[in-house]
Design goal:
This protein is of the alpha/beta class and about 140 residues long. It has a single domain, classed as Uridine Diphospho-n-acetylenolpyruvylglucosamine Reductase, domain 3. It is built from eight helices and five strands; from the N terminus they run βαβαβββαααααα. Strand 4 and strand 5 form a beta hairpin. The mean pLDDT is about 95. InterPro entries: Diverse_Substr_Oxidored, FAD-bd_PCMH, FAD-bd_PCMH-like_sf, FAD-bd_PCMH_sub1, FAD-bd_PCMH_sub2, Mopterin_DH_FAD-bd. This is Periplasmic aromatic aldehyde oxidoreductase, FAD binding subunit YagS. GO terms for molecular function: FAD binding; oxidoreductase activity. Keywords: FAD, Flavoprotein.
Length: about 140
Amino acid sequence: MRPFKYSTAKNPQAATQLVTGNPQAKFLAGGTNLLDLMKEDVERPTELVDITRLNLTQIQLLPKGPNQGGVSLGGLGKNTDTANHPLVRQNFPLLTQAILAGASAQIRNMATNGGNLNQRTRCSYFYDTAMPCNKREPGSGCGA
């Protein structure tokens, strides 16, 4: 791994300020994808902003109406908590099934809703830094 600055955000506004102006800064929450990418030298952040202490775990139903209805998932909610939440189980059973099928219990206990939406590609060529990859290095080609 390469050296990086580590900061802890006290609120969402502070988190945003800490990464503003630094395209190499990354948010750290569950870390199940980011830390692996850093170990493989695929991601090289100059700063990690720890957002794990922010209160962004709420799960709530959205209002129902024409073209409405759904669920709001807090970005820092753990996958296990989301899959087992009564509102999700009752109203969105396919979401529960997808979360439970998507990873091991150990990963689900660490991984966050936001991380699931923002994780990088799962392509094995992306993770192999010896191979060209347009997603990792735009314009380099594709090893597949």
